[in-house]
Design goal:
Helix content: 40-55%
Number of helices: 20
Number of strands: 17
Strand content: 5-15%
Largest sheet: 7 strands, mixed
Shape: globular
Amino acid sequence: MCEFYPMLLLPTHRSYMDFLLTSYVCYQFNLPLPVIAAGLDFLGLQFLSRLLRNSGAFFIRRSFGEDKLYWAVFTEYVQSQLLGGEAPLEFFLEGTRSRTAKSLNPKLGLLQTSLELYFTGQVPDITIVPIAISYDRTLEETLYAYELLGIPKPKESTSGLIKARSLLNDNFGSVYFNIIDPISVKEFCGNAVDRSLHSLEPRHRHVLFKTEVEMCSDLAGHVIRSHQRHMVLSPFPLVCLVLGQHLVEDYNGMMLDSIVLEIRWLSELIEHGGGHIVTEGNVSFNDAVKSSLSQHATLVTLQERGRLEVVRHELDESDFSHPNLRLLTRTIQEAAIHMRLYHYGNQALQLLVHFSMVALAIRSSQRKEVSIEELQNQYDTLRKLIQREFVFQRRRGVMDLQEAVGVMEVMGLLSHNDCNVLVVDSSLRKMDLLSSLLLPFLAGYRQCCLHLLSSSGTQLKTLSEASRHCQVAVEKALVLGHISDYRCLSLDIMNNCLANLVTLGALKKEKRKGQVLVLPIRDQINSVLSEIDFYMPGISKGWHAPVSDADAVYNITSNL
C-alpha cells in the first residue's frame, strides 16, 4: 500500500515568475495545485490578490518579530494545511527573490514550523521536493541592477503590472524547470533526532530542541546545494562572468574568441561540480554562445570584428531623485551595466566558488606549492570572510575542499600528494582567472572596513544606513582610482559585509532610545582587514587603476 505524507515544494526564487511557474506545471500535469506562502505586500495588487488567494496563496508578514500571537496563528494555519494533506505547501526557502542570482542563505522559520509536525510525532514523515528554476534572461534584470545601487523597487500594484506587460514582447529565451529527487525528512534525520523527547512537553508549546534546529539548518543547506547542483544554465552567465572580470582592466570589451576559450574550461568545471551548461541541438559551443548573446542585445553587442562590447544607455537624472539615493547619475549609469553582468555572472560563480576559493588561497601565498594543512587553513579563513555571500553547509569545510581539489586535479589545474598541492605550470593563467572571481567581494569588504575605521567616532543608526554610507565610500574609492570595479558598489555586498562583521564581533549592536545602533570595534575590524589584505595583493592588475584627468575633476563632494 502506497503511503502519502505531507509534501513541501521548495523552488528557487530568482523572479516573480517562480510564483506562477510551479502552479502552472502542476496544472499541466494534473497534479494538486500547491498552497503558496506569499508576502503581505502582494495584497496591494487589486483584483489580482483575490485571484492569487483563490489559486491557493496565503499572505504573511515578511517579519514576525516578537508578536507571539501572530506566530501562534501562523503556526496553526501552516500545520493544519499540511495535516489536511489535500495539497502540497510551497514556499521559497531563501525568503525573498535573489537580486544577485546567487543562492541566499535560507530562512528557517517556515521550514521549522513545517518540520515540527515530524519532530513532535504528528506525522510519520514529510517529503521535500526541491525545484531548480533558471532563466536564459531574467524578467527583472534592470530592476535588480537599480535596486543593488540603492534605487528602491516600485511598490507592487496592478497598474504597474499592466504597464510592465510590454516587456513580454522581448525575447527572454527559455526557462529551465528541474524537479529534483524528493527528500525524506525521516531518512535525512536518521537516528540524530529523538522524537520521543517531545512526549514530555505539552502539545501547545512550540519548542524545538537544539539538535532539531541544527537538523533544520542542515536540511536547508542540503536543499540549497541540491538547487545549485541541478541548475541548468545557458553559456551567457559564463560570458558575463569572464567579460565582467575583463572590464575591470579594459573598458572597451573583449574579443569573443577569447571569451569562448575561457568559458569552455569553466563550463567543464561546472559540469564536474554537478551543474549543466545547455547547448540546444547539435550546434557547436561557439554557435551556442552566439545564440545566447542574441537574447541579451540590450546588454551586450557583437561587433563586426568579433569584439563583444557592453551597450551603454544615457540615463535621465530625474529618474533617480529618490531622497535615499546617494550615488551620482554618472556612477549609476556606468554601474548599472556592471550590475546586470554581475547578476548573470553570479549564476555561474556560485557553481565555481569552491574552485575559486582554492585558487585564491594558493595564489595569495605567492607560491606554486602549498601544504594541504596550509591550504585548509587559508580556505577556512576565506570561507569565514565570504560566508554571507555564498551558502556553505555546516561541517563540510574539509569535504568541499577535497572535492574541489580533486576536480581541479582531474582538469589538470593542480597536482597533489599526501602532503602538498602544486599548481601545474600550464594552468597559471586559468588559476589567475579563478582567483580573481572573488575579488569584487573582497575589494568591497575592504573599502567597507576602511570606511568604518575612518568613521569609528560616529554612531550609525542602522545597518541599512551604515550600508549606504559604505556605498558612498566605495564610490569615492572608484573616483580616486583606488579600485576600478563597479560591482563593488552593490548594496548586497555592503549588507553582507556588515552582517558578517556583526557575526565576527567587529560591529557591536546596541539598542538606545528605541533605535539599534552599530558601533565599530577597531581592533576586530583591523583583524578582518588584515585577513582580507592577505588575499588581495598581486592577484589582479585592475584593482589599482590610475586616475585619469577626467576622473580627477569628477565632483565627489556631493556624495557626502
